[in-house]
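On clarity, I found the account of how folds are encoded harder to follow than it need be. What matters is that the chain and its backbone geometry are given together, residue for residue. For the editor and my fellow referees, an illustration may be useful. For illustration, here is how one protein appears when written out as sequence plus structure tokens:

___
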Amino acid sequence: MTTINFTVDYNDVFGKAVEEAGSYNVKIADSSTAKTTKKGQEMAVLDYEVLDGKYAGAVIRYDNILWNDNTEETLKLSAKRFNTLMKAAGIEDGTQINSTMSAIVKGLVGKKLNITVDWEQSDYNGKWNLSVKTQQPLKEQSEPNGVFRPTNNGGASATKASSNPFASTASKAESDPFSNSKDINIPDEDLPF
């Protein structure tokens, strides 16, 4: 019989998740893929693995980057989206791209960049997920911003109290102006009913 010998390490687990919005140094993960939408448009579906900080090793999934060439305007926006990604990933200025979406995604796997993410509620299932808002070259370090996944019962953001400048530190007695009041007597003739 084999003896199992290891030390429990909470930093070496499957399923590690990024729990805060913010700016993260990442590499484009092997699980990234190319897909075609129901409308027949090509799309890169990028997954990012966090490189540093307390979320190192966690994956931010499903950044869908659409290539839409239906009109001149949508084509320009698509080129701008992909130019932003290529610049952030360190692809040399002036590089000619003439390839399939699958080949583009395959070429991006392993590239390092920085992404800024924020919480966004899904129209599909109502769940809150991290959504990539910007891509830029690597920064000195990842910077979580203290904003955690909002709750589904009203959408209010769950933040740490210490990072919320609007959090009230007053006790109930201090915030209730009537808490220390004596009885109030109103004569019957002053009542409207």
About this structure: Residues 121 and 128 are 4 Å apart (CA to CA). The radius of gyration is 25 Å. Strands lie at 20-28, 33-36, 42-50, 59-67, 112-121, 128-136, 143-148, 158-159. The longest strand covers residues 112-121.
